[in-house]
Amino acid sequence: MNERYDVVVAGAGPAGAQCARDLAIRGYDVVVLETEAEDEFPRQSNKSTAGTFPSMMASFGIPDDVVMQYTDKVVLESPTEHYVQSQPGAVLEFADFKRFLVEDGREEGVEYRFDARATAPIVENGEPVGVTYNGDEEVYAEVVVDATGPAAPIAKKLGVSELERDNHAIGIEYELEGIEIDRPGFADLHDAMMLRLDHNLAPGGYSWIFHTGEDTAKVGICYIQNGSHSTYARDDFTVDDYLSHWLDTDPRFRNAERIEGKQHRGSAHIQPPGQMHTDRFLAIGDTVPSIDPLWGEGIHTCMQSGRMAAAATDSCLKHGNVEPTAENLEVYDSLWHKKVAPNVRKRQLMTRLLYLADNDRYDEFMADLERLDEETLARANNGSPLAIRKLLSANDIPMLARFARQQFGVDLPDLPLVDKLRQ
C-alpha cells in the first residue's frame, strides 16, 4: 500500500465517500479509512432513515436499485390533524446506498482501507500532513478530510470541532410489517414520507413513518436533548420507551411486527456550523454538522458537503504552486453556506421555535399550512421572515416571548415582529 496520497478521508459515510468519488474523478490519489470491517459494512453505521429527494438522486447519480420505495407526497401530522403536500421522494435502503458509493468510488480509483480506525492527525510544523490509524499506522496526504461524524477524532484534536452537547439529537427506528397504511381517521400513507409533531411521542422532536412498500415502513422517533425536550419529556422515559409507547397506542400498528435485524440507532448535532477547516484540513458531513435542522434530512446535505470539500481541495491541488492553507481553503466555507445549507442560522431558529410550540399549536399549525399557498410555504421553509410571519398570529405572543428570552435574552416588545403581529 502507498503511504502518500493527495487526499486522505476518514470515514466512508455519504459525505466521505462522495468527497472521495469527486476527487478520484478529477484524477487525484485518494484513500478512505473506514473503521468497520468490509464484510460487515455498514452494520455499525447503518443509521439513517434514508429519506431523500430526486434532486439528490440526480445530482449524484444514485441508481434505482438502492431505493426501497419511491414516494409522491410528504405528510405532516399533529396529535389530531394532518397536512398533505405533493412532493416526490425516495426511501433508500441505506446499507445498499453506502455500499454503492464505495464500489463506485473504487471504480474511479479510490482506495479503501477497512478495519482502519482514524485516531489523530499527524502534525508537522503546526500543520496536519496525514492521519494515524489503528494506533500506530500512518498515511500521509496533502489534504486531510474528517468525515467521521460526531466522533470527529481528527477535527477535535485540531481544534476545529465545535459540537455542543445541548444540541445533541438522538433517534431510534424500527422497520415494521403489518402496518395499516391507510387507517380511517389518519392520512393515507401509501407512497408517503410522514413526519409527526407530537410531544407525547417525541418531546422536543418528531416521529415518522416512511412507507417502504405494501404494509411495511420505517418507523422511528428523534428528539433534541435541549430545553424543549426537558419541558415536555417524562423523567422515566428513554427514547426506546417513547417509540414503544407509540407502537402500543397508535392503531395503525395494532397488527404490526418488527422485521428482524432492522433496528437502527443514530445521533447528530442540530446546530449552526462553527469552524469547518484549517491548514490542509476540512471537516465535512455530520462532523460539521450538515444535517438539515428543521426536518432532519441529512443525506443530501452530507453529500453536498463532500462535493464542496472536493471542489475546494481541487482549487488548490490543481495548481502546483497553491498550498492548501486555511486561507486558500476558505472557499469551502463559502460553498458550504451557499450550496449545502443556505439560511442555516434562520432555519436553526425556526427549528427551536417549532419545537417550543405545544401540541394544541401543532394542531393549529396544520390548519395554517392548509390556508397558505405552496409558494409561501416554500419561502417559509427557506427562512423568509415575511413568510414565517404569515404562520404566526397574536395568539403566539406568549410563545414568542419565551423564545425571545431563551434565544436572545430580550423582552418581547423589543422585537419588531411583535409590533407587526399586534398591528
UniProtKB/TrEMBL annotation:
Domain named FAD-binding: residues: 5-305
One GO MF term: FAD binding
Cross-referenced InterPro entries: Dggglyphlred_Halo, FAD-bd, FAD/NAD-bd_sf, Geranylgeranyl_reductase
Top-level taxonomic group: Archaea
Name of protein: FAD dependent oxidoreductase
Organism of origin: Natronococcus amylolyticus DSM 10524
